[in-house]
Description:
It is built from twelve helices and two strands. It is mainly alpha-helical.
Amino acid sequence: MPTDTLPSMAQQPSAQPGNLADAAYRHILERILSGALPLGAEISRRVLARDLGMSALPVSEALQRLEQESLVESGRRVGTRVRIPTPQDIRGHCTVREALETQAARLFQERARSSEREQVTALAAKLDRLYEASADHPERFSGARLYKLRLEHKRFHLLIARGAACPYLELQIEKNQNLVFSSFYDRLFGDRRLPFQWHGMLASAVCGLDVDAADRAARRHVRHHLEEIMYRLEPFFSLDAVQIASSLGKGK
């Protein structure tokens, strides 16, 4: 799992340019998802290159990749910033997520091996325990611990995608997960309680015998609380990048 600080690339003389760009990409992505770089935050190529011990070229390549994935944006007057999603963006991401994850659920039900089904079932039970604990004892869940919980949640959905035996589908689900789960939602909602055995119900459906039941369970899972999310996000959409970054910073 990536950390906030990566080893200096200068310590790795055999690293190839492509590997440097990949390392920079992973570093910036982790900082965005963890909230170290909140929505609207400025991103300095020079500072990143210095911190990573590399030239600006691989950092620029990494930022171009993140811009293509709608995680950052660039402009002549504002430089490079973490992209602030619009209401249309969020609805669009959720629509795409529903299409991807319902298909993954159907294919997992048909193709997954016994070992993959056991992994998904075990991780679902673990997630449900963790989410219940975070709702019952929010004081025990720091921002860093919530981030680790989100990484486990992401791993759960990627396990289902992997069991679908379609690598391209798995890749697209991972990119979509990066767009719809971030520290922004943690700070906005705090510790939001989920329905009882929420992930266990999905695991049971995708590991069951009915492909349509797997589809319905995945669809219900993805749609959960979408309207509430949109309602609670509404005040943020009237703020500019600096105001959003300041507002999120107060929640640390």
